[in-house]
Amino acid sequence: MNAIEVTGVTKKYSEITALDRLSLAIESGSTFGLLGTNGAGKSTLFKLLVGHIRPDDGTVSVAGTDVATAGPELRSIVGYLPEHAGFPPSLTGREVLEFHARMHSLPDAASRIDAVLSVVGLSDAADRCVGGYSNGMTRRLGLAAALLSRPRILLLDEPTAGLDPRGVADFHRVIERLDAQSDLTVVISSHVLTEIESLCERIAILHGGQLCTVGDIDGLRREVTDDVRVRLRLGDAASADSIQTIVSAFDASVHSTDHDGDVVFVDCDPEDVPQLLTELTEAVTIDGYDVREPGLERVFEQVLSEAEQDSQPRQSAESSEQLRTVSHDE
Amino acid sequence: MSEDQTAHSSTEPGGGTVTAADRSFETSSQTVVAFAGQTLTIAQLEYRLSLRSRWTLALTALFGLLSLLVVGFGGSSAGPFRVDAVVVSLASLATYLVPLAALVYGYDTIVGAEETGWLDMVFALPVSRRRVVVGAFLGRATSLAGATAIGFGLGGLVLFVRVDTVPWGLYADVLFGAVTLGLAFLALGVLVSTVAAEKTHALGIALLVWAWLVFGHDLAALGLVAAFDLPNVMLTGLVLANPIDIFRVFVLSGLEITGSGMAAVVTGTALSTTVLLGGAMAWVVLPVSVAAQLIHRRSL
């Protein structure tokens, strides 16, 4: 069963199309990642899901209920951490959660509040004013508020934006713990690809308000490339040119090379890696190397470049059409 | 309506019979309780926030200081102490100060919460936006009413000490009128806050509203009165179209000193206390009701 179904949704802000005929389904109990550049439509999609805005066209349903026609009760099963969550600075963290608990009419508010404060690591700071919280603590309080009602669907918009590495790690631990609950659906948007890669099973990539691709991460990796990336650290940066000569012999299997100072990247078929390394170590001094599976970054880059290529002919066609219209008007 | 609600009657586990009408009543009463519960929760939070901000304390001190000054200066002039003159001075002070204070108190209710990211959190809760607006108004209204009553009440206390026979009814009218005037302008502030896209826009609109109702409306109305022989019903309409004029007429109609502006023109007309109170209540309720409707159009 799908926890979220978005069908043919278009949302415009005056002249700007934030979402363009987007259709997407997210399975119950999964952890789903939303990727896209700035302005891709991720936050707009979250706002539609939580009912902050309404689509100009299409339907958005959460837990089988159309958000447009549902009452506010639907939000009792949805926890939401907005990208720019904020709290009145004169309230304490506990008071914020008490307010949330009362709005949800939670019967065992005190124990739940203590529990979520413990989960997000804010127990010690619970009785301090939010105005004195760091950015990371504010984000964690937002997560605590979203978790308080034990929602079936958790929407996290850029949850780790602005957090230091330790804050990010803590956040990941919380999400991983939540992931163990089989019935909880988590949707995370992020610019940090490694974060999505480590937390999510399935992803969607948005660009210009359109869905570019959706699927499980491994499947998308395989779709994009079977290559592995060999990263070589050279003893002498000048020998990078020599490497170019050597890898050109592997014409059929080496698909790209690049270098950054004394580090050379070679993308090639996994079967050719041993022979390539043998020949390279005979020819140049190599201080170290590693071999990596293609990351989500390559999937993301390729999908986006394809999307941009697709949109360019359409944009130029639209421009030509506009020019023709203008000349007709004149 | 759910299947349970459409059933004509059924037997409760305890043996009693529950009809559809009973269930309908229960459902509607539960809805009312839920509405009141969530609205009061928001009102309590807003009240707590307003008490913790320095605004409420500052307003109380300002109102108190100025009312004490008015009462003090009222007694410093040569001749007998004129209680009615003090009341008129207090009323004049209230017509300028209370609307401005209330608008500034209310202009950021919604748009300010949106800019800090708090509204995004609150609207994601299982509560209708209408309740959020009404609750926020009620919370701020409580603290503003308290600040106004305490501030202007201080002047009354001093008056009580200085004068043997204080016309308490008259002073109570000023106090009640000032509180109601504040609530009306707070309601306008909440409405402005609901429609404005940014806090700075809201402040600008609030100041324009203040300038119009304090100066512009009276000038325009007096121009009409001077140019045309307006019937009483038109004069009544002009008074009811401005909460400040309602306040002036309400407070000053019992005095020989009539004050200024439209109040001086209409104190002799047949504007009853009931009509004035109805008009004042409308100025409190209508802006909040409109805001509660318009909040649904607001995109976060």
From TrEMBL, chain A:
Start-end of Polar residues biased regions: 310-330
Keyword set, alphabetical order: ATP-binding, Nucleotide-binding, Plasmid, Transport
Domain of life where this protein originates: Archaea
Keyword Transport tagged: yes
Cross-referenced InterPro entries: AAA+_ATPase, ABC_transporter-like_ATP-bd, P-loop_NTPase
Domain (ABC transporter) ranges: 4-233
GO molecular function, one term: ATP binding
Gene3D superfamilies referenced in this protein's UniProt entry, alphabetically: P-loop containing nucleotide triphosphate hydrolases
Pfam families: ABC_tran
Region listing for Disordered, in residue ranges: 304-330
SUPFAM superfamilies reported in the protein's UniProt record: P-loop containing nucleoside triphosphate hydrolases
PANTHER family in alphabetical order: ABC TRANSPORTER, ATP-BINDING PROTEIN
Family: Belongs to the ABC transporter superfamily.
The protein's name in its UniProt record: ABC-type transport system ATP-binding protein (Probable substrate copper)
Organism whose genome encodes this protein: Haloferax gibbonsii
Lineage: Archaea, Methanobacteriati, Methanobacteriota, Stenosarchaea group, Halobacteria
